[in-house]
Amino acid sequence: MTETKAAQDGYDHDFRAVHDDELEWEDGLANELMTLPPGVKAKVYMHDRAMKRIDMKVQFPPGYVEPEHFHKSWHSIVVLKGRMCVAGKDLRPGDYVFGWDLPHGPYEYPDGCEVFVVFMGDGTEHVWDESKHEAHQNTWEAETEEGKAGVEAFRQKRTAGE
Fold first, then answer.
1. Which residues neighbour 97 within 8 Å (Cβ) at sequence distance 6 or greater?
2. Which residues in the chain show pLDDT less than 70?
3. What are φ and ψ of residue 155, in 5° steps?
4. Whose CB among 8, 68, 71, 112 lies 3.0–4.6 Å from 105's, allowing a Cys bridge?
Protein backbone atom coordinates (compact mmCIF):
# COMPACT_ATOMS: atom_id res chain seq x y z
CA MET A 1 0.00 0.00 0.00
CA THR A 2 1.41 3.40 -0.93
CA GLU A 3 1.56 6.26 1.51
CA THR A 4 -0.88 9.06 0.69
CA LYS A 5 0.34 12.57 0.01
CA ALA A 6 -1.42 13.71 3.23
CA ALA A 7 0.62 11.22 5.24
CA GLN A 8 3.84 12.33 3.53
CA ASP A 9 3.68 16.04 4.26
CA GLY A 10 1.14 16.35 7.09
CA TYR A 11 -1.39 18.27 5.00
CA ASP A 12 -4.84 17.05 4.02
CA HIS A 13 -4.92 17.10 0.23
CA ASP A 14 -7.79 14.64 -0.10
CA PHE A 15 -10.31 15.53 -2.78
CA ARG A 16 -13.83 16.13 -1.47
CA ALA A 17 -17.22 16.39 -3.09
CA VAL A 18 -19.86 16.68 -0.38
CA HIS A 19 -23.62 16.99 -0.59
CA ASP A 20 -24.86 19.43 2.02
CA ASP A 21 -27.31 16.87 3.43
CA GLU A 22 -24.46 14.41 4.11
CA LEU A 23 -23.47 16.51 7.12
CA GLU A 24 -25.70 17.14 10.13
CA TRP A 25 -25.93 20.52 11.80
CA GLU A 26 -24.04 20.25 15.09
CA ASP A 27 -25.55 22.25 17.91
CA GLY A 28 -22.84 23.96 19.93
CA LEU A 29 -19.93 23.01 17.63
CA ALA A 30 -19.57 26.59 16.42
CA ASN A 31 -19.75 27.79 20.02
CA GLU A 32 -16.89 25.41 20.86
CA LEU A 33 -14.75 26.20 17.80
CA MET A 34 -15.41 29.93 17.82
CA THR A 35 -16.09 30.47 21.55
CA LEU A 36 -19.34 32.33 20.92
CA PRO A 37 -22.43 32.65 23.11
CA PRO A 38 -24.79 29.62 22.84
CA GLY A 39 -27.25 29.18 20.00
CA VAL A 40 -25.10 28.66 16.90
CA LYS A 41 -24.95 25.50 14.76
CA ALA A 42 -22.24 24.42 12.32
CA LYS A 43 -21.26 21.88 9.69
CA VAL A 44 -17.52 21.39 9.25
CA TYR A 45 -16.67 20.43 5.68
CA MET A 46 -12.91 20.36 6.06
CA HIS A 47 -10.54 20.86 8.99
CA ASP A 48 -6.87 20.69 8.12
CA ARG A 49 -4.86 21.20 11.29
CA ALA A 50 -1.51 21.34 9.46
CA MET A 51 -2.74 24.19 7.23
CA LYS A 52 -4.66 25.72 10.17
CA ARG A 53 -7.75 25.91 7.98
CA ILE A 54 -11.42 25.20 8.64
CA ASP A 55 -14.17 25.38 6.00
CA MET A 56 -17.66 25.32 7.47
CA LYS A 57 -21.23 26.51 7.29
CA VAL A 58 -22.56 28.35 10.32
CA GLN A 59 -26.21 28.91 11.16
CA PHE A 60 -27.22 31.84 13.38
CA PRO A 61 -30.79 31.82 14.74
CA PRO A 62 -33.13 34.80 14.38
CA GLY A 63 -32.15 37.55 16.80
CA TYR A 64 -28.63 36.28 17.51
CA VAL A 65 -25.87 38.85 18.07
CA GLU A 66 -22.25 37.86 17.56
CA PRO A 67 -20.13 40.02 19.88
CA GLU A 68 -17.57 42.51 18.68
CA HIS A 69 -14.40 40.40 18.60
CA PHE A 70 -11.04 39.60 17.10
CA HIS A 71 -9.14 36.34 16.63
CA LYS A 72 -5.76 34.93 15.64
CA SER A 73 -6.99 33.77 12.26
CA TRP A 74 -8.50 35.51 9.29
CA HIS A 75 -11.91 34.60 7.98
CA SER A 76 -13.74 35.03 4.73
CA ILE A 77 -17.53 34.79 4.94
CA VAL A 78 -20.20 34.58 2.25
CA VAL A 79 -23.84 34.95 3.25
CA LEU A 80 -25.92 32.03 1.92
CA LYS A 81 -29.35 32.68 3.47
CA GLY A 82 -30.93 35.36 5.63
CA ARG A 83 -29.33 38.57 6.82
CA MET A 84 -26.05 39.55 8.44
CA CYS A 85 -25.94 43.15 9.62
CA VAL A 86 -22.49 44.56 10.34
CA ALA A 87 -20.47 47.73 9.78
CA GLY A 88 -23.59 49.68 8.77
CA LYS A 89 -24.45 47.18 6.01
CA ASP A 90 -27.46 44.89 5.68
CA LEU A 91 -25.83 41.91 3.96
CA ARG A 92 -27.87 39.36 2.01
CA PRO A 93 -27.13 36.13 0.09
CA GLY A 94 -23.99 36.52 -2.01
CA ASP A 95 -22.51 39.33 0.10
CA TYR A 96 -19.03 39.02 1.62
CA VAL A 97 -17.19 39.80 4.88
CA PHE A 98 -13.48 39.61 5.76
CA GLY A 99 -12.06 39.91 9.28
CA TRP A 100 -8.83 39.23 11.10
CA ASP A 101 -6.94 40.43 14.17
CA LEU A 102 -8.53 43.88 14.43
CA PRO A 103 -11.83 44.18 16.33
CA HIS A 104 -14.89 43.70 14.12
CA GLY A 105 -18.59 43.40 14.80
CA PRO A 106 -20.90 43.13 16.50
CA TYR A 107 -22.75 41.14 13.86
CA GLU A 108 -26.53 41.13 14.15
CA TYR A 109 -28.69 38.39 12.61
CA PRO A 110 -32.19 39.85 13.09
CA ASP A 111 -33.93 37.26 10.89
CA GLY A 112 -31.36 34.47 11.17
CA CYS A 113 -28.54 33.73 8.78
CA GLU A 114 -26.55 30.92 7.23
CA VAL A 115 -23.00 31.59 6.05
CA PHE A 116 -20.06 29.73 4.55
CA VAL A 117 -16.85 30.66 6.34
CA VAL A 118 -13.19 29.82 5.85
CA PHE A 119 -10.91 30.34 8.85
CA MET A 120 -7.17 30.21 8.37
CA GLY A 121 -4.57 30.92 11.04
CA ASP A 122 -3.69 30.26 14.64
CA GLY A 123 -7.19 29.82 16.04
CA THR A 124 -10.87 30.26 15.39
CA GLU A 125 -11.57 31.37 18.95
CA HIS A 126 -13.27 34.74 19.23
CA VAL A 127 -11.93 37.10 21.89
CA TRP A 128 -14.69 39.37 23.15
CA ASP A 129 -15.79 41.40 26.16
CA GLU A 130 -18.81 39.82 27.86
CA SER A 131 -19.92 43.02 29.62
CA LYS A 132 -19.82 44.94 26.33
CA HIS A 133 -21.87 42.15 24.68
CA GLU A 134 -24.45 42.18 27.51
CA ALA A 135 -24.87 45.95 27.06
CA HIS A 136 -25.32 45.74 23.27
CA GLN A 137 -28.43 47.46 21.92
CA ASN A 138 -29.69 46.05 18.62
CA THR A 139 -29.57 48.54 15.77
CA TRP A 140 -31.21 46.42 13.05
CA GLU A 141 -34.90 45.56 13.04
CA ALA A 142 -36.19 42.14 12.13
CA GLU A 143 -38.34 41.82 9.01
CA THR A 144 -40.14 38.65 10.11
CA GLU A 145 -42.28 37.72 13.12
CA GLU A 146 -39.81 34.91 13.96
CA GLY A 147 -37.02 37.47 13.83
CA LYS A 148 -38.85 39.94 16.09
CA ALA A 149 -39.38 37.21 18.68
CA GLY A 150 -35.75 36.10 18.34
CA VAL A 151 -34.36 39.61 18.78
CA GLU A 152 -36.32 40.01 22.02
CA ALA A 153 -35.37 36.53 23.30
CA PHE A 154 -31.66 37.03 22.66
CA ARG A 155 -31.78 40.57 24.12
CA GLN A 156 -33.17 39.08 27.33
CA LYS A 157 -30.50 36.36 27.37
CA ARG A 158 -27.71 38.93 26.87
CA THR A 159 -28.94 41.19 29.64
CA ALA A 160 -29.29 38.17 31.96
CA GLY A 161 -25.69 37.16 31.13
CA GLU A 162 -26.66 33.84 29.49
1. 75, 76, 77, 79, 84, 86, 91
2. 1-12
3. -60, -45
4. 68
